[in-house]
Amino acid sequence: MFGKRKPGTPESLVTGNFNLTATLGASGRTMQMAGYLYYGEDQESIEGRIAMMRSIMEKEQTLAEIPELEAKREQMIKGMNQAREVLAELLDKQNNGQHISSQERLNIKNMQINIAKVNEEIEKGEAAIEEKKKRVGVR
Predict the structure, then answer these.
(1) What is the mean pLDDT of the chain?
(2) Which of 23, 24, 52, 118 could be cross-linked to 64 through a Cys-Cys bond (beta carbons 3.0 to 4.6 Å apart)?
(3) pTM of the predicted model over 0.85
């Protein structure tokens, strides 16, 4: 593979090249890798180098996705906590015998459902983050 070709020999003649490009996360950053095709090189050797490069790029893509998923999770937690605060105020108002409008009653019902759904999404997001970290060996 790399460094095994002796200069001046037919096996060291470059007969072509290839490029692999990957987008790293939502930022639009890209990563490019290039390789050469050598005279007399067999398909297995080429495929092996491409597979190795692809593996490196997939790891880098996953590493770029982790902070994005963590930021999304944090935003969801922040939004859920704000909704919980509003819900607690409405429930206090209701439990203290204060009049609440039909819209506020509807808000209570909808917020309870939405908070439960967001909590499920946060749990799914946390599982996805852990799976990606495990895949690339990050703690």
Answers:
(1) 91
(2) 24
(3) no
